[in-house]
Amino acid sequence: MEKGSVSVYFVQSALDSLRVRGIDAEALLLDAGIAPATVQSPHGRVTPESFSKLWLAVAAALDDELFGQDSRRMKVGSFAMLAYMLTDCATLGDALKRMARFFNLLLDDFHCALEVQGSEALLTIRPAGQHDAPRVFGFETLLMLQHGLACWLVGRRIPVLAAAFCYAEAPRSAEYHRMYSENLRFGEGATALHFSRALLELPVIRSQQDARAFVRKAPGNIVIKYKNTDGLAAQIRRRLRASSAADWAGFDDVAAQLKMTPATLRRRLDDEGQTFQLIKDQLRRDMAVDLLSHSTRSVADIAVQLGFAEPSAFHRAFKKWTGANPGQYRLQGTGQG
């Protein structure tokens, strides 16, 4: 599986749940190996492992796996119980109906449902409480959990035909393309994932023993493993990842490999909110985060591997991406910062 990274936006949203309750978040950040400077950067990234540690720590501090987004707490252990319960279902459709009932029993401010419209099935979440504005992080967290569980139950990614959101588009929506689909709609009546109705007949292949292993690795495995891999940007990313950065093909060559004209490729990428340069920058960023976190290679060697002519250029780029320089990021990740 390709390594990835998680936007600092999700880290900030989780920490906001602590701050509004007067709980100091710095110790949890340090324990998760996340540099405070990274959290302050609008473009910061963290590893899935660090995000998982922080997610679990915040949930434990609040005793709430939905981070205070609902009037009632989703107590720690709820997600694990749900995973165990769903392994008894025969098909994906049965599991999604049971999952919706489970969340509707626990929560007051969100209403979950499985709906069918013609050839499509919809996993929907609607606001149910009396709030002036949608609790965006609550919708994001619920959608992430439900889609990740559904994919895990059948042992494959469920391709999302379209994703709708009951709130206005925000800058972080760029993350949604990789998480769900290139077809996004905002300001809709419900937050929903559209997928093929035929997939409801897929058999559930997981056991309770599988569930124990799955829960231990959540939520990092949900955020990264089942991201959208069907979009054009994802295809280009895989092609680039297959070779060293120094040997990456140019834009015109990639267009030829995909049997498109450069103009068509540029237009198709624009439809996904991407550019060729942005794809390369994001891939270098994720490779850098992974190498600094999981290898002992020197910063200079990593700079060369990622195609930077000088270590200083890598330092500048990495600080722009994450808010910390490479050395600081590595030390923080090992608990020495």
UniProtKB/TrEMBL annotation:
Q: Does the keyword Transcription apply?
A: yes
Tell me which InterPro entries the record gives: AraC-type_N, Homeodomain-like_sf, HTH_AraC, Tscrpt_reg_AraC-type_HTH
For this entry, the protein name equals: Helix-turn-helix domain-containing protein
Keyword Transmembrane assigned: no
- SUPFAM superfamilies listed in its UniProt record: Homeodomain-like (SSF46689)
Q: Where do the HTH araC/xylS-type domain residues begin and end? A: 230-332
Alphabetized, the UniProt keywords read: DNA-binding, Transcription, Transcription regulation
User: Which Pfam families does the protein's record reference?
Assistant: Arabinose_bd, HTH_18
One MF term in GO for this entry?
DNA-binding transcription factor activity
